[in-house]
Structure formats: C-alpha cells, structure tokens
Design goal:
130 residues; alpha+beta; four-stranded mixed sheet; 34% helix
Length: 130
C-alpha cells in the first residue's frame, strides 16, 4: 500500500515519492464530505477552501514519517506570498491548490525565479487543480 511505503520513508525522498504522496492524499479525500458540503458558489461549485480543507485532512494521514504539513507558509522564510501547504523537515515540498482552472498561470508564476515563493526552500512543488 502506498501510504505504508511513505510512512516508512524518512530521508532522500524522490520525485516518485512526492507523486505517491500526492496520489494517496487525493485517493483518501472523502467523496461524501466534498459532495455534502454547503460551501458552494455559482453553479454549485465547491469553494476553493472546501477543497483545501479536505485535501489537508487527507494529506495529514499519509504524510511521510517525521514530516508535517503547514498551511499558509511564507513569512517565516521572508516570502511575500503564502504557499497553501508546505511539507517541512528535510522534505521541502510545496503544494498550491486551486479549482476549476482559476488563475493557473498566476499560481505557477509564484514558484518561478522571481515569484512570490522564491524564498521558500522547495525541492518539489505542484499546483493541484480540482
């Protein structure tokens, strides 16, 4: 099982491990919680914060051993922006969430050389679009 493999990993995590973590975190999201949420807007689309909350709930259950997930990370690294989620320790993974393709280019630019997240140490990063 992917989560048990991730739980046993501590150091030298690879891009493949990052991908396994992401897949497992999405697989563990609750269809029931998402479908029953009243936090909806136009066209009954779930608000971004609903996706963020459910992804976080799921991700903390599969995060690699010795690591933790922090939300809205930026200030501690001197960043002008606030990354949705940061997996700390030696892992240094960044996750930005959006929905319905909202502002994908803007989100991506934050990770580039002169972007808002340039001061946040990241070995891997991704934008998850729900």
């Amino acid at each position: 099982m992917i989560s048990s493999n991730l739980k046993s990993l501590q150091r030298d995590l690879t891009r493949q491990d990052f991908n396994k973590f992401l897949i497992r975190s999405i697989e563990c999201m609750s269809k029931h919680i998402l479908s029953e949420s009243y936090g909806r807007g136009v066209n009954s689309h779930l608000y971004e914060v609903g996706w963020q909350n459910e992804w976080y709930r799921s991700a903390v259950s599969v995060v690699p051993l010795g690591a933790s997930i922090s939300a809205n990370v930026g200030y501690v690294f001197g960043s002008d922006g606030y990354l949705d989620y940061y997996i700390n320790g030696e892992i240094c993974w960044g996750i930005e969430l959006t929905r319905e393709g909202n502002h994908l280019a803007e989100h991506a630019n934050r990770f580039y050389e002169n972007g808002k997240y340039k001061d946040i140490p990241l070995k891997e990063w991704i934008i998850l679009d729900f």
